[in-house]
Each structure stands twice: as structure tokens, then as C-alpha cells.
UniProtKB/TrEMBL annotation:
Keyword Signal: yes
Residues in the signal sequence: 1-24
Source organism of the structure: Aerolutibacter ruishenii
Protein name (record): PA domain-containing protein
Sequence similarity: Belongs to the peptidase S8 family.
GO terms for MF: metal ion binding; serine-type endopeptidase activity
GO CC term (a single one): extracellular space
Chain ranges of the PA domain: 342-405
Residues annotated as the enzyme's active site: 127 (charge relay system), 156 (charge relay system), 434 (charge relay system)
Alphabetic keyword roster: Cell wall, Hydrolase, Metal-binding, Protease, Secreted, Serine protease, Signal
Any one biological process term the GO annotation gives: proteolysis
Length: 579
């Protein structure tokens, strides 16, 4: 019954997603602030009416109207002697909680909304432990091993766990399965750097995951040297029904990393926000799937920096090399900070770009600034380095927060701290296939929760067969089968995957020297298809463009069929061509 309800919910959600995409409301680009000169309120209001404007608010103390003005009337209003200035009525967005870009990219929110939210699935995270007291993990069922598993000395394990399970609680970030999965934490790394462990320690940890009842083992770790014993151990876990998932590695080359490259383990590559392969992501024929791994915002047990403006706090990171200090002052906009300004005692906002972070911070220092806040020139946050040191606090900030401050908070008092704090509810942007791996682990939990009786092989097949094809058509060494997609994989596992190709038709070109080109056309089907001729696959895993052509070199009759990639049942009807 639960599965039937989920199938219905998935179908309804898909229909809603399609319609919502087409109808989603956007901020009105013609909505503006109109400030009038003293004593001219009535005349300004009359001018707005004459221009065909629609007034939303009137603020007498501000001498301003908020109105939507026809674009052709704007210049005339700007020239009106009663109007002091006109500026955009800038949109504002909720900023108390952030959904990291990768969470939406893997279709997690719409999958959770159908009820396939990870409930009942235990994910075992083998890493550096976890800051169990972090605000994002309140209420999550959590166990671990050994003593000290609930503390994290380097932050890596906490970041990974947050991507899987951070709560939807109005603060911080949201995970793939927000506080729905249960977690078992096995700590194998320790110390400030969490440098290394052993393959035997990893096998022991994986066995403890099995004993704890975990269905999924998430390993954001690896090494260059394979081990026959370790390989056998993961093969045994696979036979026991456990899905093991590991990072493909960050060397940016074609070398193999283990345990990811064992056949019984899913190897995860990393993508950036444009769906391109991350420059550091290893690529080889063992890569199975890809997930977001660049500028991933998640939970962290430390705060390297703090910024508050007025009563609002912002997620920031200390730029490497900054002095550890505090500063306060009125917030000002320094633009690109590519020259020295007059900023004595001010906290200066600098947009990233044109010159280095070090040059920006030097210019702010030379201009008397108390602190530099460098915000990104692309969506999301970033981590930076001064390749040296500074005498004033320097922090990085997301583009969204930086732009919001520029348009709505200049002049307010800002407090900046680059004094690190440990054992706290912090957040950080990190890069790596380590960050991609928990996206896949969390998605696997969502998918499996939709059909708990499914096997680990069923879940793996659903993830791979529905991944968004990136790079070369079909499976390739950079992305494996493509970007993991929770919604599509859940539908596939429940039997509601992509419909079989329909309407297959064939045409033949001119016959010359006993050769002709056969062109097939069809509709529907999955993202990739196989073309069969006389029962044999002649084109496997090609992108579904609805058409395919082949030059046939001998006269005769040929029977074609098109099937969803990897399927022998989700197929079109047959069509026979003779020449």
C-alpha cells in the first residue's frame, strides 16, 4: 500500500513540477522606489497616476512610493522636477536557512515531498566522527563507535553527515534526507588534520556498520593502493545486501582510488554547479556516478569567522592567512576594492574579481578599513587564500548575502571576527569527491525508503539507470552513468520509471551499390536507449534524441526495435525494413 501511494505521489509531483516550472512567479522587474522632494508628495503621486503606475505602498516619513511603473514611462518620471530619485524595489529572500545547490540538483526536495524521505534507512558514515551536538542533528537517531565517535577533531565527518541528514529546521542548511535517516558513525580518523588510517581499520569499520544494521555505507575516503583482502571484504558485504559508496578521489587524473574502484563499491565523481566535471575529480572506468562536489555548504564543528550586520548573522569563512582578530564599524560598499578608498574605521564589502584577494585586503587596509568582507561574483560561497597574511580580519561570503548587504544594509553596524571557535554549530564550504559521496549516499537512502524490500543491487541499478547523462553519451570515465537523480531513481525502483519508446518508424534512403541508410524515429523513452537490429544491440546507451541512423551494406530485411538503456522489456514495437 505504501508503495502504491508513493507511485501516485511521484506521478502527481512530476505533474506539479512541470507546471510549476512553467508558471513560477518571478520578481517584478518594473517595481521601483520613487522618492519625491519635500512638499511634493501630491504632485509626485499625480505624476505616477498619469504615467500608468500601480502604487503598492506610500511611506510619508521616507517621502517615497513603492510602485510598478511601465518601462516606457520611467525616464519621464526620472526627469520630473518633483522626483528626487528612482531605484529598484529589490527582491528579498529568506536567509535564515539555506538549501545548498547540490541538494536541489540531485532532486532531493521533490523526492522527500512524496514521502520517500529516508525514514527507516540507516546510513553508516565511516569518517572522522561527528559533532553530535550540532544544531542540525537534533532529534536524529544516531549511534557510533568507538568512544569519542560523537566528536570531530577535523570537521570532515561532520560536513559529510550534514549533506546526508541536516535537519529542515529554519537555520543553517538542509540535507538530502533532512533528519529522517538514522546514522551510525564509525570514527577512523582523528587529530586536527585527520591524515590517514589503514585498510584493515576500514574493513573493521565496515563490518561494524553491518553489525549496526546499516543498509548503506558512505566512505568519503580512499587511497591509491588496492588490497585483495579489502576487496574481498567489500564483495562479502555486497553479497550480504549492503550498498557501499565511496569517493573516486581528488588527484584530477585517471588513477584508481580504493575502495571506490572495487566492483562491489559505487565510485562517485564530483561535478560543479554547471554540471561540469570538477577539475580535481579522478576519472577512470571504475567511476559509476557523479554528484555535486564543488563549494558544498554543510555542517562543520568549527567557526573560522563570524559576521553580524545589525541583528542578522551571516555564514562566512576566514580567508586563509587572515589575522585572528575582531573588528567593528559601519558597513560600506567598496565595489571591487581595486583601488584605495576612504574607509577609516569601516567594514568594507568587496566583490570578488579583477584583482587578487590579497590586493583587495591590502587596499582596504591602506584605506583605513577595519575589516574586509569579500563576497563571491558567482552564486554560492567560496574559500580563498591571501598567500600571505593580513593585519585586519578578512572573510569570504556568498554572492547572495553580499548583494543583499549592498542593497539593504549599508551604514549599519557590522561586527567581524576571525577568531576560530571549536565544538560549535558551524558551517563551511568544502570541495572534493568527499562532498559528492554523501549526496549519493543520501539519495540511496531516499530511494530505498520507497521500497525497503528492494535489494542493494536493485537500488544501485535504479541510481545508475536514471542518472542524468553528462559528457559523452552513455557511461563515460568522467561521470560514470551521470548525475544522480533521486526522483527518477525512486520512480524506477517502484516500477514507475521512464515509459518505453513509442511510435517507432523507419525510412530508407536511396539504394546505391546494395547500400542504404536506415533512419529510425520514435517518441518517449528514457534518457538513453539501446537500438536492436534482428534481436542484437547495435547501439548501446546512446542519448535519446528520438532519431538514429545506420548505413546498411547488404540488401535484405532488417527488424529494428528501440529499448530504454539497459532494458530488455521497456521497448518499442518492432519495425521491419526491406530493400
Amino acid at each position: 500500500m505504501k508503495q502504491q501511494k508513493l507511485v501516485a505521489a511521484l506521478a502527481a509531483a512530476l505533474a506539479f513540477t512541470l507546471s510549476a516550472t512553467a508558471l513560477a512567479a518571478q520578481p517584478d522587474p518594473n517595481r521601483v522606489w520613487v522618492k519625491y522632494k519635500p512638499g511634493t508628495g501630491a504632485a509626485a503621486e499625480a505624476a505616477l497616476k498619469a504615467a500608468g503606475a500601480r502604487t503598492h505602498y506610500r511611506f510619508d516619513r521616507l517621502r517615497a512610493f513603492a510602485a510598478t511603473v511601465p518601462p516606457l514611462a520611467l525616464q519621464g518620471l526620472r526627469n520630473n522636477p518633483n522626483i528626487e530619485y528612482i531605484e529598484a524595489d529589490a527582491p528579498r529572500y529568506p536567509s535564515a536557512q539555506t538549501t545548498p545547490w547540490g541538494i536541489t540538483r540531485v532532486q532531493a526536495p521533490e523526492t522527500v515531498a512524496t514521502g520517500a524521505d529516508g525514514t527507516g534507512i540507516k546510513v553508516c558514515v565511516i569518517d572522522s566522527g561527528i559533532n553530535a551536538n550540532h544544531e542540525e542533528f537534533a532529534g536524529i537517531s544516531m549511534t557510533g563507535y568507538p568512544s569519542g565517535w560523537n566528536n570531530d577533531s577535523c570537521g570532515h565527518g561532520t560536513h559529510v553527515a550534514g549533506t546526508i541528514a541536516a535537519a529542515n529546521n529554519s537555520v543553517g542548511v538542509v540535507g538530502v534526507s533532512p533528519a529522517k535517516v538514522s546514522l551510525h558513525i564509525v570514527k577512523v580518523f582523528d587529530g586536527a588534520a585527520c591524515d590517514w588510517s589503514y585498510s584493515s581499520t576500514l574493513v573493521d569499520a565496515a563490518n561494524r556498520c553491518q553489525s549496526a544494521g546499516a543498509k548503506i555505507i558512505s566512505m568519503s575516503l580512499g587511497g591509491r593502493t588496492s588490497s585483495a583482502t579489502e576487496n574481498n571484504a567489500f564483495a562479502s558485504l555486497n553479497s550480504a545486501g549492503i550498498l557501499s559508496i565511496a569517493a573516486a578521489g581528488n588527484d584530477g587524473n585517471s588513477t584508481f582510488s580504493y575502495p571506490a574502484s572495487y566492483a562491489s563499491v559505487m565510485s562517485v565523481a564530483a561535478t560543479d554547479s554547471t554540471n561540469a566535471k570538477a577539475s580535481f575529480s579522478q576519472y577512470n572506468n571504475a567511476v559509476d556516478i557523479a554528484a555535486p562536489g564543488v563549494s558544498v555548504l554543510s555542517t562543520y564543528p568549527f567557526k573560522s569567522a563570524d559576521v553580524t550586520v545589525g541583528a542578522s548573522s551571516y555564514l562566512v569563512a576566514a580567508i586563509e592567512g587572515t589575522v585572528q582578530a575582531t573588528a567593528a564599524g559601519a558597513l560600506v560598499n567598496g565595489g571591487l576594492c581595486d583601488s584605495v578608498g576612504s574607509w577609516a574605521g569601516k567594514v568594507v564589502l568587496c566583490e570578488r574579481g579583477v584583482i587578487s584577494f590579497a590586493q583587495k585586503v591590502t587596499n582596504v587596509t591602506s584605506g583605513g578599513g577595519a575589516a574586509a568582507v569579500v563576497y563571491n561574483n558567482a552564486p554560492g560561497g567560496f574559500s580563498g587564500t591571501l598567500s600571505g597574511s593580513s593585519t585586519i580580519p578578512a572573510v569570504s561570503m556568498s554572492q547572495e548575502d553580499g548583494q543583499s548587504l549592498v542593497t539593504g544594509a549599508l551604514g549599519q553596524n557590522a561586527n567581524v571576527s576571525t577568531v576560530p571557535v571549536s565544538n560549535t554549530s558551524g558551517y563551511a564550504y568544502l570541495d572534493g569527491t568527499s562532498m559528492a559521496t554523501p549526496h549519493v549516499s543520501g539519495v540511496a537512502a531516499l530511494v530505498w525508503s520507497a521500497k525497503p524490500a528492494a535489494s542493494n543491487a536493485d537500488v544501485r541499478t535504479a541510481l545508475e539507470s536514471t542518472a542524468l547523462d553528462l559528457g559523452a553519451a552513455g557511461r563515460d570515465n568522467n561521470f560514470g552513468y551521470g548525475l544522480v537523480q533521486a526522483f527518477d531513481a525512486t520512480a524506477a525502483l517502484l516500477g514507475g520509471g521512464a515509459a518505453a519508446p513509442t511510435g517507432l518508424a523507419a525510412s530508407k534512403g536511396p539504394v546505391a551499390r546494395n547500400k542504404s541508410t536506415i533512419t529510425l524515429t520514435w517518441s518517449s523513452g528514457g534518457s538513453t536507449v539501446d537500438v536492436r537490429r534482428d534481436g542484437s544491440v547495435v547501439a548501446a546507451g546512446i542519448a535519446n534524441t528520438g532519431t538514429w541512423a545506420q548505413s546498411v551494406r547488404a540488401r535484405g530485411s532488417y527488424t529494428f526495435q528501440v529499448c530504454n538503456g539497459g532494458s530488455a522489456s521497456a521497448c518499442s514495437g518492432q519495425v521491419t525494413v526491406s530493400f
